[in-house]
Design goal:
2 copies of one chain form a homodimer.
Chain A lengths: L11 H9 L2 H13 L4 H5 L7 H13 L3 E5 L7 E5 L1 H4 L2 H14 L7 H9 L1 H13 L11 H7 L5
Antiparallel strand pairs in A: 1-2
């Protein structure tokens, strides 16, 4: 019989924090959603400077939690890539809320102001668009199928 | 001249995580918002079992970030209590998103199902109601001025 892992409590806030409530886990999810990163090497190169052992443990933890899943890269068969599951995609509204909060309080923020305004004024629509884009292998800011290029094609203000 | 603290990056996700992106910080904010806790002793008694040194460091960190503020208790003048600032109150939408995500995936959740349904179906309204209640010294689940008692008085379905 599998031994059940100890939980700190059954509070829903605590459940989420035990699943992905770690700065590094959330930055990995950010890298996938906003920048289309997929591989260990790509996550490692992010500017926050995650350590190799922390990156490996967070990827394993999120895979175990069913938030990300590992598969063989279509581009390079030797490489493994990580993508968000449905459970992982459902964290996107949280990322949007986190970014909105910061954009409101961080005077030095690197967030594009037009993008933040769009997320604040048409939040539900943007969350839906980000979710569909990331599920289909795209990202918010990077790549030909990105949310930004979709918005540009639809004559949005961005 | 004051030495500027090093930031990992200027990304808005990272900014929030450096401000309160720690499981223990978010559980303290949860205690304030949902359970009306205000004092060091009350936070210490939460079921997740925060350690005294972690609690003290997280309170100091959030006070420094302007998320909570310390004041003399009106009830017991010897005691200090912590309340959310406007910047701290703006974290409430995030808590609601976190709880919604968990309620959808945690089959053992302690979250009242009716409450989660209400937050999912009338999210903007509930966030506003929670914000006003907490700003006025109340909480979601506890006390005579709680969100729950307001909803009951207004013949809501809870």
């Amino acid at each position: 019989m599998k031994h059940k892992q100890q939980r700190r409590s059954y509070c829903p806030i605590n459940f989420a924090l035990e699943s992905f409530g770690d700065p590094w886990s959330l930055l990995i999810i950010r890298d996938i959603v906003y920048f289309g990163k997929k591989t260990y090497g790509e996550f490692l190169s992010s500017e926050e400077g995650i350590a190799t052992n922390i990156l490996a443990s967070r990827l394993a933890q999120m895979e175990k939690q069913g938030i990300i899943t590992k598969r063989q890269s279509k581009m390079e068969r030797r490489k493994e890539e990580y993508v968000l599951t449905e459970k992982g995609l459902d964290i996107i509204p949280l990322l949007v809320e986190i970014a909105s909060w910061s954009a409101g309080y961080d005077r030095e923020t690197a967030a594009p102001i037009d993008w933040i305004t769009l997320c604040n004024t048409r939040k539900a629509e943007m969350i839906q668009l980000i979710r569909e884009t990331v599920r289909d292998g795209g990202a918010v800011f990077v790549g030909p199928g990105s949310v930004l290029s979709k918005l540009a094609g639809e004559d949005h203000q961005l």
